[in-house]
Amino acid sequence: MSFLATPTRDTLRATILTVIAGIADAVGYITMGGVFAANMTGNTVLAGNRRRAAQLHRRLASPGAAARFFMGAMLSRLLLRLLHRPTAGLLVEAALLAVVGFLPISPEPAVLIVALAMGVQASAITHFSGNAISTVVVTSTLARTADAVLDRLWPGENKHLPVVTNLRLLFLTWIGYLAGAVAGALLLAVMPYPLLVPVALLALLLFL
Q1: Whole-angstrom Cα distance, residue 79 to residue 146?
Q2: Could you read off the pLDDT tens digit of each residue along the chain, which spans 208 residues?
Q3: Model pTM score
Q4: What is the DSSP string of the chain?
Q5: How far from the centroid of its chain's Cα atoms is residue 42's Cα?
Q6: How far is residue 141 from each of residues 18, 81, 128, 168, measured CA to CA in Å?
Q7: End-to-end Cα spacing for the chain
């Protein structure tokens, strides 16, 4: 299959989900006290930074966001076990983001709600075209993309290494997160409720 071929349904869904996570992270970091909504690795670093008193709110909010993310992932897993429908988690995520988008909520509880929504997304759909892909963080995705690129440049069977096959899926999900982060910053300048864009994207996903 050509790298530039028309994206499959799974690739399109994974890319849209990473765009949503990028928007949520950018909007959360800029407007909600410098805390990431989806990137719990970044929040762990912020929580451990105790050098400046001015960052007290950030240190307190970061563990709270991680806890809400964890709760969201558990909720999503519970919905999967009870309903056997990944779209149920996406509906919950859309509802949570809509609450932040429509209601006048202060930054501290807002980032916790968005982190809860990102936790739901993280566990709602985890496999695309037979590949396990994270749609809320892209560090491992970038590493697997590097693996796939090298395997393409240096073909040949190696029984001691895991095979990485879907380069397009990996690349587009990483680009999706980057595009979402850029879009999140731009949306803040042009609309008062930028998180409504992820809500609309989630609604679109339900029809894919």
Answers
A1: 34
A2: 445 455 688 889 999 999 999 999 898 888 876 777 777 777 666 666 655 444 545 445 567 788 889 999 999 999 999 998 888 999 999 999 999 888 878 877 888 899 999 999 999 988 887 778 888 888 777 887 787 777 778 776 665 555 556 778 888 888 999 999 999 999 999 998 899 999 999 999 988 7
A3: 0.83
A4: --TTSPPPHHHHHHHHHHHHHHHHHHHHHHHTTS--SS-HHHHHHHHH--S-GGGHHHHHHHHHHHHHHHHHHHHHHHHHHHH--HHHHHHHHHHHHHHHHHS---HHHHHHHHHHHHHHHHHH--EETTEE--SS--HHHHHHHHHHHHHHHS-S--TTS-----HHHHHHHHHHHHHHHHHHHHHHHH-S-TTHHHHHHHHHHTT-
A5: 13
A6: 11, 26, 13, 11
A7: 21
**Distance between CA atoms of 102 and 98, rounded to whole angstroms?**
6
Reading phi first (left if > 0) and then psi (alpha if -120 to 50, else beta), residue 81 is in: alpha
